[in-house]
Design brief:
Shape: rod-shaped
Largest sheet: 4 strands, antiparallel
CATH superfamily of the largest domain: ACT domain
CATH topology of the largest domain: Alpha-Beta Plaits
Number of strands: 4
Radius of gyration: 24 Å
Strand order of the largest sheet: 2-3-1-4
Structural class: alpha+beta
Number of helices: 4
Distance between the termini: 71 Å
């Protein structure tokens, strides 16, 4: 009969618990990134030939009304404005309907359209604009 040292037996018992603890720690670190709520508005010209509003102009007007913008990005034939909260996004939509002249469609984008789930995993805040 082969007798194993006590430290080998203890290590075999502890190793699964350490691995489970490490997995739980990684999950806790990544969860906020996966469930981050980011809302966005999309501004499009309703008619062909109408130029999109300048992003800086939109930022100035919304900022003057106390609406904080995370980023403003041109995307194909539209302007995408991202916010940290749904409340800011709704307030911006109402304000932009009054600020911008007739001829622009202003719509909420759903969260899946703004980012896919894999790109949400990030330790650094990233935005352009």
């Amino acid at each position: 009969m082969i007798v194993q040292p006590k430290w080998t037996t203890a290590r075999r018992r502890i190793l699964p618990w350490l691995m489970l603890g490490a997995l739980a720690l990684v999950a806790m670190v990544l969860m906020p990134a996966l469930y981050r709520q980011e809302t966005a508005l999309q501004i499009r010209a309703a008619r062909q030939g109408t130029a999109l509003p300048d992003g800086f102009y939109v930022w100035q007007r919304l900022n003057a009304q106390g609406i904080k913008i995370k980023s403003i990005t041109p995307d194909r034939d539209s302007l995408v404005i991202k916010f940290d909260s749904p409340e800011q996004s709704i307030a911006a939509q109402k304000a932009l309907q009054e600020i911008l002249p007739y001829g622009f469609d202003i719509a909420q984008m759903d969260a899946t359209a703004t980012k896919n789930w894999f790109s949400r995993i990030s330790f650094h805040h990233q935005s352009v604009g």
